[in-house]
Predict the 3D structure of the following.
Amino acid sequence: MFARFNNKDNVEYAPKNYGSISNFDSNEKLMRKFGFLPIETQGEIEPNKKYKSEFE
């Protein structure tokens, strides 16, 4: 899973399609080019739950 931090409280996960790029989320080189980096999660992500995000 790839994501980028737009600010300290906003995480944007890599979308399936980005602009005119189809299958963007399956191309690691392109995701990195646009600032998306691999992320690690601790445990399962539950839909509609607020999470605190931290990054180094």
About this structure: The radius of gyration is 12 Å. The CA atoms of residues 11 and 51 lie 10 Å apart. The first helix runs from residue 28 to 33. The chain has one helix and three strands.
